[in-house]
Amino acid sequence: MEADLNIQEVNAMPRIGDNAPDFEAVTTTGKIKFSEFAIDKWVIMFSHPADFTPVCTTELTGFAKRKGEFDALNTQLLGLSIDSIHSHLGWVQNVRENTGVYFDFPIIADIDMKVAKLYGMLQPNESETAAVRAVFFIDPKKKIRLVMYYPLNVGRNMNEILRSLEALQISDKHKVAMPLDWKKGDKVIVGPPKTLDELNARLADDSVEKVDWYLAMKNI
Ligand code: BEZ
């Protein structure tokens, strides 16, 4: 019941650019302290509403099947739901028996909702007992770089999660920005000039493809 929830706690919602809040938790692969977890890696931390439910089963199956692509992007997966560790283990084993897909990444058993509240995953007007479908993109400095929240009744898009992760990494590496619908191999946006000297340099620069001085693209 909402009356039982501490509204200040529930309203905590880490934002882009914030340091990822630290926590300790029990997971399906053992205990973790987040600040010491996946050192030097990106982390995709995602919540699902409940074990043994259909949409969640398709989503975690998607993460498991494409784990190799996350590994290739130096990224650790970390799941979470407000379920017990026994429930998680039973579900993982059930899906493995039924489909052969094995959720071998850690899944937090957040039975006291501590982490869900810390990360704004508990959104009481959607559900007071189940986490919404959140995805936090956390960089190797443990900074939050992108946040997605989906409701209980709509599954996420794995292509978009991977596309966004790759976009963040390439943007960091090349100091560029990504246009609408960018995907790997497409041109990227070079930042607009910030001074008149930079403006003049941009106008004279034939190495970038210019729509105008403030919108220029290049291949990387
Ligand atoms: C599902 O994963 O199917 C689901 C979970 C909680 C509420 C609604 C749907």
Automatic annotation (TrEMBL):
InterPro entries with a match to the protein in the record: AhpC/TSA, Peroxiredoxin, Peroxiredoxin_AhpC-typ, Peroxiredoxin_C, Peroxiredoxin_TDXH, PRX_1cys, Thioredoxin-like_sf, Thioredoxin_domain
Thioredoxin domain mapped to chain residues: 14-170
Binding site residues for substrate: R133
Active-site residues annotated for this sequence: C56
Alphabetical keyword list: Antioxidant, Cytoplasm, Oxidoreductase, Peroxidase, Redox-active center
GO biological process: cell redox homeostasis; cellular response to stress; hydrogen peroxide catabolic process; response to oxidative stress
Subunit structure: Homodecamer. Pentamer of dimers that assemble into a ring structure.
Family the entry assigns: Belongs to the peroxiredoxin family. AhpC/Prx1 subfamily. Belongs to the peroxiredoxin family. Prx6 subfamily.
Protein name in the entry: Peroxiredoxin
Gene source species: Bizionia argentinensis JUB59
